[in-house]
Amino acid sequence: MAGYDRESEVKAFDDTMAGVKGLVDAGVNVIPRFFHHPPDASDISEPTTLSNRPKIPVIDLAGIGREAVVELVRQASETCGFFQVVNHGIPLFLLDDMLEGVRRFNEQDLAVKMRYYSRNRLDKVRFNTNFDLFISPAASWRDTLTCQMAPEPAAKAEDLPDAAREIILEYTREVRRLGGVIFELLSEALGLKTEYLNELECGKGLTHLSHYYPPCPEPELTLGITRHCDPGFITVLLQDQIGGLQVLHQNQWIDVSPVPGALVINIGDLLQLISNDKFKSGVHRVRANIIGPRVSVACFFSTSYIPSPRRYGPIQELLTEDELPKYKQVYMSEYCFYSHAKGLDGRPTLDHFRV
């Protein structure tokens, strides 16, 4: 708009190092303009009735048999790219403790949080509002603590904030174990040997992101996070009971309703790439809300920016004369640098790497 200096307003906000929570603590009832999102075309598409609206499956990892689990994982991965799992082996008290740790970090004195405020993507532990705040078309209403937990060199225990150190370490250990199990199921769902994706080192890296979505005075104008796909192989997401996560499926937004004790699993871009589009990286977003704070923890399986000689491309065993490679070979760091530089601009990152 004429006369609106977005860059200066964003910089003034970022200089406070107080994040979105700082705005809420200051008592704002009108959100800054750079948080305004244009309407999403999928919001105005013709809705389906509740009876035939697609649902995100909830898969019992312990109670229905291996073949049935693999088939449900395959169906979900080939369609919306999202499913939830229960009986996953992570104690429920750890899930609760992890969510409480996120609240504790974000609700402590600002002076303590400011020690971790950074926009250097190579920092192993950093706190900020939107990694792409200065380049995104519109900012998202959330603050994030990012911890690079694997592989080495990763964040050391003493680098992690006191408010959540022990629970981050314990929860990460459990999620890495679960990730190995999920990669086994995904390998079988692709018709490959059980250890294929683990041997491909898809589970080697893990980045732990704690998201805090404060209550928003004008939730209809913004989003907790705009539509996007995740940049890793898979994401293991822990969400609280407030809700707001939605997946784009058949051109409509489907709620991923919180299920007590469940974890959300979604396919990321790199798994879509190596599966040659057999599995779909799910487009998703989070709606802002007025009741918050909403809390979630997203664990991305990706080695991120850490240099590695390994390149990833479509899996040879999935290719035929009729099924040719759809993507180039890519280094993990190459993909992540491009994704980070582009930001959440609404354009699919994978398109840049298509043949």
Q: In words, what does this structure look like?
A:
This protein has helices spanning 6-15, 19-25, 66-78, 92-106, 110-113, 165-189, 196-199, 269-274, 332-342; strands at 58-60, 82-86, 125-128, 143-150, 206-213, 223-228, 234-239, 245-249, 252-255, 263-267, 284-287, 294-300, 311-312, 330-331. It is of the alpha+beta class and 355 residues long. It has an 8-stranded mixed beta sheet with strand order 1-2-10-7-12-5-4-3. It has a 4-stranded antiparallel beta sheet with strand order 6-11-8-9, with no helix packed on it. Strand 8 and strand 9 form a beta hairpin. Helix 4 (92-106) packs across helix 6 (165-189). The relative contact order is 0.16. Residues 46-51 have low confidence and may be disordered.
Q: What is the topological layout?
A:
Layout: H1 6-15, H2 19-25, E1 58-60, H3 66-78, E2 82-86, H4 92-106, H5 110-113, E3 125-128, E4 143-150, H6 165-189, H7 196-199, E5 206-213, E6 223-228, E7 234-239, E8 245-249, E9 252-255, E10 263-267, H8 269-274, E11 284-287, E12 294-300, E13 311-312, E14 330-331, H9 332-342
Parallel strand pairs: 1-2
Antiparallel strand pairs: 2-10, 3-4, 4-5, 5-12, 6-11, 7-10, 7-12, 8-9, 8-11, 13-14
Helix pairs in contact: 3-6, 4-6
Family: Belongs to the iron/ascorbate-dependent oxidoreductase family.
Organism: Platanthera zijinensis
Keywords: Iron, Metal-binding, Oxidoreductase
Structural class designation:
alpha+beta
**Number of helical segments?**
9
Dominant shape: globular
Mind telling me the CATH class?
Answer: Mainly Beta
Q: Beta fraction of the residues?
A: 15-25%
Annotated CATH topology: Jelly Rolls
CATH homologous group name: B-lactam Antibiotic, Isopenicillin N Synthase, Chain
